Amino acid sequence: MERHSKIYVAGHRGMVGSAIYRKLQQEGYTNLVTRTSSELDLKDQLAVTAFFTAEKPEYVFLAAAKVGGIIANNTYRADFLYENLCIQNNVIHQSYLNGVKKLMFLGSSCIYPKLAPQPLKEEYLLTGLLEETNEPYAIAKIAGIKLCDAYRAQYNCNFISVMPTNLYGYNDNYHPQNAHVLPALIRKFHEAKLNGSAAVIVWGSGSPMREFLFADDLADACYFLMENYNENNLINIGTGEDLTIKDLALMIKKIIGFKGELTFDSSKPDGTPRKLMDVSKLHNLGWKHKVELEEGISLAYQDFLNKIKP
Ligand code: GFB
Hints:
The chain is an alpha/beta fold and 310 residues long. The chain is built from 10 helices and 12 strands. It has helices at 15-26, 45-55, 70-75, 77-97, 135-155, 181-195, 215-228, 245-256, 280-285, 293-308; strands at residues 7-10, 32-33, 59-62, 102-106, 159-164, 166-168, 199-203, 209-210, 212-214, 235-237, 243-244, 261-265. It has a 6-stranded parallel β-sheet with strand order 2-1-3-4-5-10, with helices on both faces. A two-stranded parallel ribbon has the order 6-9. β4 (102-106), α5 (135-155) and β5 form a beta-alpha-beta unit. α4 (77-97) packs parallel to α5 and α6 crosses α8 (245-256). The longest helix has 21 residues, at 77-97. The chain is globular and about 60 Å long. Bound molecules: guanosine-5'-diphosphate-beta-L-fucopyranose. Guanosine-5'-diphosphate-beta-L-fucopyranose binds next to α3, α6 and β7. Guanosine-5'-diphosphate-beta-L-fucopyranose binds at residues 69-70, 73, 108-110, 133-134, 137, 166, 179-181, 184-185, 202-204, 208, 210, 245, 268-272.
């Protein structure tokens, strides 16, 4: 990419898209194109066609998606499948028709089989049954990976697919029901501390393990891969380290300074027991994460506090 290249960041207001947008600005790119979801509904094929025909971006970061935690995925199953298929089909196909030089499709670690060996290697894709709670979202993301590879095979498009692990950071979603675990626990511990609650409810058993990557680290990896990765097949992005949900809760409890107890709500699903990414392919290319979990949680908590200040 040249500093004056026209770069479209789809989903620029979300946690991932805004981190990528910030990274491109920091690197001195001056011709960035964005549209809010009210300006451009990416589920609308005609609207996306008109946008690409008019704008003709040279590079595309496809960070727009319908996303959420385990309860959101399991509740809005049709929406997660239908809306993500619409978004990625429209953006990827119009990128092909309008001669986009390179597109990056962002997936998720939930695409791997529920009980795949750990850590998850890219070649484990489609080798087993998916985790039930997020199967619709995972199927949509797998379709996006295969669509990018199919356009490379048939039309020689340089469309790459990257698979981030669980993410957190600035501009996260803190909705009590629909958020991912890390932001949800930040909100719960913060409110419990303010209210003087005796305990914070943690969903599930606390024994599943998760890996967490700070969103600005992800954006740095996406920029690195947009400059250095030009192959079919997906590539994992993560830290290569994970911890139990219980230990995550205890870490957040300590950072926020909540003095009460944890209670575990076994009526809520645990989801995948573990989904640690094998990041050797990425490390071998020369990229490694910088922000460790404890520091990242403190940064995310400060962002949360800044956003809720009246
Ligand atoms: O982040 P999370 O919602 O999604 O939940 P996944 C991870 C684990 O945290 C589950 C536990 O075992 C939850 O039971 N958990 C504990 C909580 N307390 C809470 C809480 O207050 N809120 C939430 N949300 N979880 C998602 C996929 O799976 O991972 C998405 O559903 C996406 O599609 C995302 O792939 C990266 O990590 O289980």
